Amino acid sequence: MLSFLGSCTSARWTVKEKESIDVSDYEVVEENYFLQQSDKVTPVNPVLSLALFSKTEYEYTQRVLMQRNIQDYKLRPGTMALGIGGAAMAFYLANIADFASHSSSTKRWTFNGVGALMLASGFLNMKPVGEPRPTGEERYKRSTGTTVEIDTVKADAKIDTSASVYMLYNDLIIFEESNQDITNGVLNIPIGNVLNNLRLSGQNVGNTTVEVLFSDSLYRYKYAIDSVLQPYAVINEQLTALRNSPQENADNVLADLVEGSQLKISSINDDWYQVMYGISETYIKKSDASIIWRSEDYEVEDQVVTVPRVPFGEIDVESNIPMLRDHNPNGKALLLINQNYADTLGERNYALRDGRLMRTYLQNALGYSEDNIYQLADISSSDSLNTLLSSLRSTANDSTELFVYISGYGVVDKEKRKLQLLTVSPDNQLDSMIAVSDIFSKIGDISSRKTVVLSDIDFAREKIEKSFSEKEMRDIIESNVSPLLSKNSKSSVLMGSQLNNPSRLYMSGEGEDKKHHIFPYFFAKALQERRTVLSDIYQYLERNVSYTSRRLFDRPQDPLLLGNTQLNLAGQ
After folding, report:
1. How far apart are CA 557 and CA 545, in angstroms?
2. Would you give the end-to-end CA distance of the chain in angstroms?
3. Interatomic CA distance for residues 118 and 95, integer angstroms
4. Which end of the chain lies in a sparser environment, N or C, as judged by fewer CB atoms within 10 Å?
């Protein structure tokens, strides 16, 4: 029973660590502050955030660390039995009668003492049970030396300090602030806002560098512009189609975008920008837009402006067409319309709709037969035009009333002072252009009782104001149309704009959109108001075309009438 029930517990101090750091006994050797970038700069978050940290060097005293442990013990059965046996023998020898009678009292007491010691050792020689259990009591003893440690933590947000910030682009300083406050322990540098102000454009825009001078240290961060800003396509044309696939197809147009609209670019290929419109990936022609770089959070008023596709007949001049003349069997018309130009020029929007407007008025208002209205669209060379003009010449006679409408882009050969109609051929070299004087000369070779030519050719895509005076530009026009006017005294040429005036669409960013160019719109409007004499039509156009162009675009567009001004479109 003593063997199984006997146990005890004892506590003692032991060495836990010979060179323990006494955190209560220290000295601050040095303290410094520094900046560290906390967030990655992205187009979504174009801000460089630098957090303020403190770096403190401490010298601590090292001491011997003692800890108090509790240990459980149990009796050792073998040792206990040995002790009891030895003690019993010693007691027996000391106290048996024969030994006691022949031994002195000293020997008896010695044997009794040995028995007591053996009995005590049997019970006191206990074995430890389990691991020592710390009591949690610790104490430092003598010093053994010192040690140095460095602690780096985020600085107190209440610390009032500042830094000098510089931003560079192409080695030029674009932003500078000598004492920018570090607020709540963070220095925020709006990289995106600074770069937005530069309105960077093009595909290769390089890098920007941010330099921060703080506490006698210079921090330098270099970023590629395309890692900070997003590319956006800015529509340069007055109107361009937004498509759901990268092909020019009348069935894949989702909407029309007005000039100035901006859409985020997803990817770029040879001819198209893939752009984001809402949550959809759509496409616009590269030739109709340019790239600018800005952050996603940059607010742009009317960032994307679209105009609806309106069926023909729903615009005011496309309906309520007056009948100005009965059937005119002698009327012949030629419509020359270039709309789908190559990428370098961009589509001439609504040109085909303008041609349809002319055709509708010729048939419904002026009595032309549908079979006598010839149309040639997207001319790529002079061959097809010459063939059609030859066919007209063979069928015309002195009773023919010839009406010609020409729409497209043109250029001025400054050296020869010749006007050229641009074809839709992608190279747009001089040998693929058609001389305007040649067109008018061939029109002049067609027999007719009267010939009227409406020209809505836009020559203003290249600036020529510095090349010629107003008088010289008029002289160039007159010399290029004279092959017609000199051959036929009953011929007129009504031009929609001067050489230095662009031929604009009748639309604005505020939602006003007539789906036509200004000149053919008001020509149809004049017929709708029953004006049929060219001089009256011209006066109407002078007032309305010029006023509308200045009102919508703050740019002039002045029509010009040459030749016989008294011709009547609805009379003999």
Report:
1. 7
2. 146
3. 16
4. N
What mean pLDDT is predicted for residues 56-68? 87
**Backbone angles phi and psi of 130, in degrees to 5:** 75, -175
Nearest to 363 by CA among 331, 401, 404: 331
394 vs 231, 368, 371, 388, 485, CA distance in Å? 56, 19, 15, 10, 20
C-alpha 488/C-alpha 486 separation (Å) is 6
pLDDT of residue 215 exceeding 70, the answer is yes
Record the tokens describing residue 450, joined without a space. 């009267």
Burial tier of 45 (Cβ tally within 10 Å: 0-12, 13-18, 19+): middle
Helices (H) and strands (E) in the chain, counts: 12, 26
Starting at the edge strand found earlier in the chain, the sheet holding 280-285 runs 289-294, 230-235, 262-268, 272-277, 280-285, 239-243, 253-258, 306-307
Calpha distance 27→59 (Å, rounded):
5
Q: What percent helix, strand, coil does the chain show, rounded to 5?
A: 30, 40, 30
CA contacts within 13 A on the Cβ side of 136: 0
The 8-class DSSP code of residue 156 comes to P
Q: Is residue 504 within 8 Å of 521, Cβ to Cβ? A: no
Whether 403 and 331 have beta carbons less than 8 Å apart is answered as yes
Helices 105-124 & 77-95 angle (0-180, nearest 10): 170
3-class SS string, 422-448:
CCCCCCCCHHHCEEHHHHHHHHHCCCC
Assign 110 to helix, strand or coil: helix
Contacts of 68 (CB under 8 A, 6+ apart): 11, 12, 13, 14, 134, 135, 137, 138
Q: Please report where in the chains the tokens 């097809």 appear, as a residue.
A: 384
The model carries a pTM of: 0.63
pLDDT in tens, 345-390: 777 889 999 999 999 999 999 999 999 999 999 998 899 999 999 9
Report DSSP state, residue 370: G
What are the C-alpha distances in Å from 515 to residues 109, 266, 419, 518?
135, 30, 27, 9
Cα–Cα distance measured from residue 521 to residue 357, given in angstroms and rounded to the nearest whole number? 8
Residue 87 has pLDDT above 70, yes or no: yes
Angle, alpha carbons 552-354-401 (nearest 5°): 125
CA distances from 67 to 131, 137, 483 (A): 14, 6, 117
Domains belonging to the chain, first-starting first, are 2-11+71-130 (no CATH), 15-65+140-227 (no CATH), 230-307 (2.30.30.40), 317-497 (3.40.50.1460)
Query: Would strands 48-75 and 7-37 be described as parallel, antiparallel, or unpaired?
Result: antiparallel
Look at the alpha carbons of 195, 196, 199, 202 in this order and tell me if their dihedral is positive or negative.
positive
